[in-house]
């Protein structure tokens, strides 16, 4: 077992790792579109919305496009998802309300308990592609107990840009090796590892819905591989 | 009574408003210097250290000097304070430990209770001249329940620079009028008010020690004038 006594802060990915965006967006979409007599596959709609959001970050990362917040990306990509499902009857207010639905996501069942356990000995920090206001609003609604939030609006780029991981140890004033990145996405963890951070993989087989499970990483690829944040807290001796 | 239903976030000054830096630094100084047979007026030493810290922010604010963190200012101004008290026998390790004493300050007796009450309906945010790591370390030790920390290292200047207050509403994605600055220093509140923030004055008569009490601001100068953070929570309907 690796030695984790040196770890001072756990920096968490938010979307997928801490919160279940797919169920939350399915619920938000149904709440707004259901009463307008749309009967869609809400989970599929959530996936069809999430994909262009991820794609929209690439030109910001490569500096082809100036930084815009994830809130803004949610609003602009909504039109793509709605078009795909043939929805044409939302007004601007409804679209805004739905785009802000990404601020109203619920955590996975283990997230808050695990984070509270970890907080006893470690700083529990959001290192998110979400902007601060997005992650903070979500936390206030859902009771997610961040010690502090490092949003993408601080460095004005998106993970897995190396600048984000480098900024975490700089803002926290600790060595990269004292930071452990916690995520369910190999791409996030691989980039963190390449910048000298420790890594914890949390398995979220249902992130994209039933039947989309990715294989677990092989043992040793990351410093920790767990099924839940509570299991991570156990491993960290919290 | 003003209407505060529009307020979404309370942004707190930290040093003096939330924590009692004078008692904390007196204790830290005594812990390091006492065993070396120094018997000083520890509170006076704390004041003599705090003054050059505040002065050292001015050249950063005016851009005569590049931004350096408050942690760094603590270390460099320590030499000024020690010289004033004739202390010449601290080595680098001891000086570093003492400078980091600013991360180990305790809150005033009402701070945590008041903040926890306010958190039910509002975002409780640090808007500090401290860098994130300094404010976060202090919070972890003392149990200060920030929803998030906006440190001076984000904008790389010092209050009362207007850029800091403007950044608060930008990072929180709310109007300046939805932010209430909470501080015990008129200069901080005056600057916040001039940028459109609401203002709450908390009276901290002992900030600089016994016999240094400043007069209460006249009624109406700030939106709220209270004696404690718990009283602020009452006024805000928390």
Question: How would you characterize this protein structure?
Answer:
- The structure is a homodimer of 238-residue chains.
- Chain A is an alpha/beta fold.
- Chain A folds into 2 domains: 143 residues, Rossmann fold; 83 residues, Putative phosphatase, domain 2 (DNA polymerase, domain 1, Orthogonal Bundle).
- Chain A is 45% helix and 11% strand.
- Chain A contains 11 helices and 6 strands.
- A 6-stranded parallel β-sheet of chain A has the order 3-2-1-4-5-6, with helices on both faces.
- In chain A, strand 4, helix 10 and strand 5 form a beta-alpha-beta unit.
- In chain A, helix 1 packs across helix 2 and helix 6 packs parallel to helix 11.
- The first copy, chain A, starts with 8 loop residues before the first strand and ends with a helix.
- In chain A, 49% of the residues are buried.
- The mean pLDDT of chain A is 97.
- Chains A and B meet through helix 7 of A and helix 6 of B.
């Amino acid at each position: 077992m690796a030695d984790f006594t040196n770890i001072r802060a756990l920096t968490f990915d938010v979307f997928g790792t801490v919160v279940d965006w797919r169920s939350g967006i399915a619920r938000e979409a149904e709440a707004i579109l259901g009463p307008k007599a749309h009967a869609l596959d809400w989970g599929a709609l959530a996936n069809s919305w999430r994909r262009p959001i991820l794609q929209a970050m690439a030109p910001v990362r490569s500096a082809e496009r100036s930084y815009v917040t994830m809130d803004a990306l949610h609003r602009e990509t909504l039109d793509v998802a709605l078009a795909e499902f043939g929805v044409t009857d939302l007004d601007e207010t409804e679209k805004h309300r739905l785009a802000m639905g990404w601020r109203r996501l619920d955590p996975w069942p283990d997230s808050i308990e695990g984070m509270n356990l970890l907080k006893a000995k470690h700083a529990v920090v959001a290192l998110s592609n979400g902007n601060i206001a997005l992650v903070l609003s979500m936390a206030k609604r859902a009771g997610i107990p961040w010690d502090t939030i490092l949003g993408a609006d601080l460095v004005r780029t998106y993970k897995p840009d190396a600048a984000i991981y480098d900024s975490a140890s700089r803002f926290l004033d600790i060595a990269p090796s004292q930071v452990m990145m916690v995520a369910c996405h190999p791409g996030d963890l691989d980039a963190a590892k390449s910048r000298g951070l420790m890594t914890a993989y949390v398995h979220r087989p249902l992130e994209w819905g039933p039947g989309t499970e990715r294989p677990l990483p092989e043992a040793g690829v990351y410093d920790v591989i767990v099924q839940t944040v509570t299991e991570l807290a156990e491993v960290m001796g919290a």
